[in-house]
Amino acid sequence: MKGPICSWRALAAAPVLLAVGLGSANPGLADLPPEPIPNVKAIATPYPDTYAVVHDFAFGSLIDSKFSLVDTETRRFIGMLSAGQFATVNYALGRQEFYVGETIHSRGTRGERQDIVAIYDFANLALVAEIDLPPRRANTVINKANSAVTADERFLLIWNQNPGTSVTVIDLDRREIVNEVPAPGCALVYPNAARGFMMLCGNGTLLNVKLDEAGQPASAEPSAPFNDIDADPLSEKASKINGIWHFVTYGGEVQPVDASGAEAVIGARWWLASAEERAQNWRPAGWHGTAGHDSGLLWVGMTPNGYPGSHKDPAPEIWLFDVEAKARLARFDLRVPALSIGASAHDDPRLLVVNIEGQLDIYDGQSGAYLRTIGALGETPYMVHAIQ
What we know:
Blueprint: H1 2-25, E1 51-56, E2 65-71, E3 77-83, E4 85-92, E5 97-105, E6 113-121, E7 127-133, E8 147-149, E9 155-161, E10 165-171, E11 176-182, E12 186-192, E13 196-201, E14 206-211, E15 217-222, E16 239-241, E17 244-248, E18 253-258, E19 265-266, E20 270-271, H2 275-279, E21 283-284, E22 290-293, E23 297-303, E24 315-322, E25 327-343, E26 350-355, E27 360-364, E28 370-374, E29 381-386
Antiparallel strand pairs: 1-2, 1-29, 2-3, 4-5, 5-6, 6-7, 8-9, 9-10, 10-11, 12-13, 13-14, 14-15, 16-17, 17-18, 18-19, 18-20, 21-23, 22-23, 23-24, 24-25, 25-26, 26-27, 27-28
């Protein structure tokens, strides 16, 4: 047995000796110097208008979502924020911070529920603070209006539903909860200019809340009913342009709500589609199918042959409107239908489209010309947030 064992050992060692010999003979294969650890590169701030955040909801593994920061001009991946389930993201440009709302459980998929707001800085995407929340933040599939930062960047607002509805108010100076505003029958948060927010209510009204310096309600006034829930209700996927929120109905009307003053003002509705196009059932579509720009531009994802429920269908076309003139400026086909859209803050804005293939397409916002695509953004990227 001695001979065969020695032969086996010699054969096993031969590739190692050969590799060592090759390395010695070829200086080009010399060892690389070790990388320093940790090796973290800071991100230049403030961010340019080309940066955007893409939300990967991780539909197949809800406890492990993430947000990718990308440069839509260079197609560069800048960094990532990890999050738990049903996460939300907001930011404050003046504070140079991201606010990630998330729900986790002590045993991963089970155990004690913990609701958290994690605060990250812009320059390092580093965790700088955590705020524990009462375990009732609304756990819904991606919706931009689940949370918001007030116009003066003083307070972070978290919508709760468990099952009653309320809004948690977080003082961002002190990084602590200062109030919980009861809001029975009302949902979501849309910031107004008066250091407060609006909510859509199930009886067709709008609740307008103003907060004082301490984060307490200075007033909470409902509007008259204006949203016909049974006939053609508002979609919650609104976009703000110069202080005016633009909602669209499922049937295709635009409902402006002016939040630029102390009181919310319900504007006159206007149609997205002509009478002939409405006869073809052109309707708004997409997971978040609207985007706005302060030059007065509104983009809406549209689909033909609409039906009850088609508002969640992908949008094969984007229609561009001048909201002051209430007129369509252009309509363009997409290379791949859209799930969600956003618009950059450029003077010459870019239209950002999360498509059904899980990529981010970038178009010229006014001509509709396709510019470029960014891929590898996760399992199920559903939403894009332009940094503006």
